[in-house]
Design goal:
The complex is a heterodimer of chains A (about 280) and B (about 300). With about 280 residues, chain A is an alpha/beta fold. Chain A contains nine helices and 14 strands. With about 300 residues, chain B is of the alpha/beta class. The chains are: A alpha/beta (about 280), B alpha/beta (about 300). The interface of A and B includes residues 136 and 176 of A. Chain B: Keywords: Magnesium, Metal-binding. Chain B: Pfam families: Hydrolase_6, Hydrolase_like. Chain B: One of its GO terms (molecular function) is metal ion binding.
Chain lengths: ~280, ~300
């Protein structure tokens, strides 16, 4: 198999690794109708890592549902994953909002609303935008914009900043593209909660009690958000050739992954092999 | 654009103004002034006497909604009988040529259809030049200006202000075409606009920006303040940019854009004009006039 992998670059560091972060969509499964489909080998790969006792978190920018729903969806596909193994922007932003005493106006998918159940949304003072899907229409966006510019200091918080993702074999615009619209309209910059924000990777590592980001690996199918973001935070960044990966991502103009792998299964096999 | 003063009879005024505005001397015969020192239709430009064509903005300059600026019809007649060429230029993404023409006629402005040049006209021109079949993210009314253009199996995207098209499915349709290599043409890139209810509404710019972000592409913007818009507007007149002046109420889109293209620019204090707008552009406007009739008087008095 022509893998294009240069094992030495990251495999030599496997012995020092204390934990692994994996993206979900495009690495564990491909989303689509009826819950999507598991990527071949990924179910077994996750099981192997767990059996080897490797701390593992699933770090996603998914904001169309709750972490409980994500876990349920993955488990229906054959994975064995608990909600608290998943790090997602919606729960993360709730902490952020409470900490800064912010009350959001929410432009998010209806299915993720339960994550915000304990958040005060009366008399809002910031706009939080997630991957709202069909909610991204002129009427809703215009209302959100009018609210945003009514604030003395418009504050825009984006749950991730992805350009697009793949669903049902179709590429779709992601939250970042619509946040770019708000940024342009109000002439402001959004604060990002989610990948590739370093704080989000740090938070994911903290849940595994890992204090040194150099001792962790992130694997994902988004060259900028997953790989580049993780590297900026100090982690090793591995690019996987599944999900929304396109051959044109390789080589990338400004992100050089620590390694490329064909799928999660290959990554786990290489990792476990070089760990010994 | 440099502000040239050749005649020594204006040097006194120029020197006076040097206390306010820096003056650079770039030759013995020329003094280059970096700012406007005139107000109310008085502006001493050596080249204003060589004006041969006048571009005129519509909304906010000739009329506000369905009311003409007082005296604007007579002022336009004076301009037309002076022998100067006129063109009516506007950023519109909703109103087709026919609607604009009908409104002007109803308000008593004597114009020809061929004298109206809009951002939709400019977009159509670019589509024809590129020989592409556009997906039109436009309101139905605006599609009238694209009659006869093939849109089956599209390989280009044209974006105007289209609340009915700005939904998730249509945006994604456009996004996928762009990812497959289709060019992105923006009628204009306004961030927002204000309605009579006093509220701000999203313009086409944010949606163009979103598509740009999603695809890592840059849109070709065809409306004001793009240089090509002003050049295209006068192409059939056979008159050079430096012999053309633009009159408008938008400092950035009308005056700034025209001046960057090499034209003169007159800012009028009607429509969306707010005190101090003239200071928001560099170089400053060639002249600042109370309204369209005052701008016409200024142009005609400069000719003699």
């Amino acid at each position: 198999m022509s893998t294009g992998v240069t094992p030495g670059s990251w495999c030599s560091k496997c012995g020092d690794i204390e934990g692994i972060l994996s993206d979900i969509t495009g690495v564990l499964y491909n989303s689509g109708k009826d819950g999507g489909t598991a990527i071949p080998g990924s179910i077994e790969a996750v099981a192997k890592l767990k059996a080897a006792g490797i701390p593992l978190r699933f770090c996603t920018n998914e904001t169309q549902c709750t972490t409980i729903q994500i876990a349920n969806k993955l488990n229906r596909l054959g994975f064995s994953i608990k909600p608290d193994e998943i790090v997602a922007p919606a729960p993360a932003v709730c902490g952020f909002l409470k900490q800064r005493n912010l009350r959001p106006c929410l432009l998010v998918h209806p299915d993720v609303l339960p994550e915000f159940a304990e958040i005060d949304t009366t008399n809002p003072n910031c706009l939080v935008v997630g991957d709202a899907g069909e909610e991204f229409n002129y009427g809703r966006m215009n209302k959100a914009f009018q609210f945003l510019v009514s604030l003395d200091e418009p504050l825009l918080i984006s749950l991730g900043c992805g350009r697009y993702y793949k669903e049902d074999d179709t590429l779709r615009m992601d939250v970042g593209s619509f946040v770019a619209a708000f940024e342009f309209a109000a002439d402001i910059k959004a604060e990002i909660v989610g990948k590739p924000s370093p704080a989000f990777f740090q938070q994911s590592l903290h849940t595994m009690d890992i204090r040194t980001s150099e001792k962790a690996i992130m694997i994902g199918d988004d060259i900028v958000s997953d790989v580049g973001g993780a590297q900026k935070c100090g982690l090793l960044g591995i690019m996987v050739r599944t999900g929304k990966y396109r051959p044109s991502d390789e080589p990338h103009s400004y992100v050089t992954p620590d390694g490329y792998v064909n799928n999660l299964a290959q990554f786990v096999d290489m990792f476990l092999e070089h760990r010994i | 654009m440099a502000f040239l003063i050749e005649s020594s009879k204006y040097l006194m005024k120029n020197i006076f103004c040097s206390f306010l505005n820096p003056i650079k001397r770039n030759s013995a015969a020329e003094v280059v002034h970096t700012g406007v020192f005139s107000v109310r239709s008085v502006c001493y430009s050596a080249t204003m006497d060589q004006i041969k064509a006048v571009l005129i903005d519509l909304s906010g300059t000739l009329h506000i909604e369905d009311t003409a600026i007082p005296g604007a019809q007579e002022a336009l007649k004076r301009l037309q009988s002076s022998g100067l060429k006129t063109k009516f230029v506007t950023n519109t993404t909703k109103e087709p040529m026919r609607t604009l023409y009908d409104r002007l006629m109803k308000l008593g402005f004597n114009v020809k259809r061929s004298e109206i040049f809009t951002s939709l006209t400019a977009a159509r021109g670019l589509v024809e030049q590129k020989q592409v079949r556009p997906l039109l993210l436009l309101e139905e009314t605006a599609k009238e200006d694209f009659e006869g253009i093939g849109t089956d199996n599209p390989n280009a995207v044209v974006v105007g202000l289209s609340p009915t098209s700005f939904n998730y499915e249509r945006m994604n349709e456009a996004f996928r075409l762009l990812l497959d290599g289709a060019p992105l043409i923006a009628i204009h890139k306004a961030r927002y606009y204000k309605k009579a209810d006093g509220l701000l509404y999203l313009g086409p710019g944010p949606f163009v920006s979103g598509l740009e972000y999603a695809t890592d592409k840059k849109a070709e913007v065809v409306g004001k303040p793009e240089k090509t818009f002003f050049l295209e507007a006068i192409r059939d007149l056979g008159i050079d940019v430096e012999n053309t002046v633009m009159i408008g109420d938008d400092a950035r889109d009308d005056v700034g854009g025209a001046m960057k293209a090499g034209m003169k620019g007159i800012l009028v204090k009607t429509g969306k004009y707010r005190a101090g707008d003239e200071k928001k552009i560099t170089p400053e406007a060639t002249a600042l006039c109370d309204d369209f009739p005052a701008a016409v008087d200024y142009i005609l008095s400069s000719l003699s």
